[in-house]
């Protein structure tokens, strides 16, 4: 950039180019816009000449051209307006969040196009990925349903390994338990460098008795115990850097393929547990139903869930953005998933597939045309695994934490009021030791 006019005049042309500062980003944009405007003016001139030359055309042709051109221009303008509107809405949301978080500070929003160069903010995703791959993560899944519905087989099919309680117990014998007992089996699964500690909680004995009154209570107790364990770890003075997470992230509830409606035990269970854990209902052994029976059964189940006020995962009120709402709406239309499980492979057109062999053919487990196992697997593992953990932590565990802390505050206030008239130091020390 020149200091004075004389120095600029006396400077040779090559040196003047060197002294001239490079154009800024806004100037480049202005130059581009001026070039574009110039091109548009040239195009308009050409169009005008073209219209004057072709004055002999019929009125019908002229009307069609005049009608088509404004439509194209309107579409381009509409697309530009929509993009600008989205950018302005995003900027307004970010500015609002910044103001709410720090109202006393001046805040602003800088787009990627306004940066002078590459900063490297996107590299934080790679950092998070590397850290997660090193540390691994936990996923705890509970399977609930009466005996003989294929709970263990489905879990083995989901993770393509022997992870169920039956598969891990040597000399296992199928016995109907007199009471509902909970058994947990943990495995560390590694795939492409990513480690996941999988814990499968089985509930043998559920729904197998003549009198199934309060058969859900041991399950509710177990889920709350895991919340309590995590809460106590959080409240410790010297907390662990990483608190072990044994909370139930998902509960797969198996419905028998009766083709009728939900049973009273199904409604009562999902009513009580839907408030403390994410429930995903599935129709077990769906290959025993025809396609029409399956569809009618699913519609009846959805009506029963709605009429009884039962909310299963994914809940509509937890959708965070329109894209997520569209995806979850498709999932909600498919719930409950009609699934078939197996751990045996068969040859189909020269390829090995997981399936159940019958006299009339092979039911392919991962074929969407045969059953909805692939949709269930995608929901639990490939698309919503992290969301299941987030809902567990931010919704269900948070509700339990608030309730427990409110209870402890009430107990503390009662304890303080009861000890207030006492002036003896010994009584005060005893009260503090109880706290």
Automatic annotation (TrEMBL):
Biased composition (Basic and acidic residues): 43-73
Keyword Protein transport carried by entry: no
PROSITE patterns noted in UniProt: G_SEPTIN (PS51719)
Domain Septin-type G as annotated: residue spans: 135-407
Localisation per UniProt entry: Cytoplasm, Cytoskeleton
Assigned keywords, A-Z: Cell cycle, Cell division, Cytoplasm, Cytoskeleton, GTP-binding, Nucleotide-binding
GO terms for biological process, alphabetical: cell division
InterPro entries: G_SEPTIN_dom, P-loop_NTPase, Septin, Small_GTP-bd
GO cellular component, one term: cytoskeleton
Region (Disordered), start-end ranges: 1-73
Taxonomy, superkingdom: Eukaryota
Primary location recorded for the protein, binned into one broad class: cytoplasm
UniProt cross-references to Pfam families, sorted A to Z: Septin
GO terms for MF: GTP binding
UniProt family annotation: Belongs to the TRAFAC class TrmE-Era-EngA-EngB-Septin-like GTPase superfamily. Septin GTPase family.
Name of the protein this chain belongs to: Septin 12
Record lineage: Eukaryota, Metazoa, Chordata, Craniata, Vertebrata
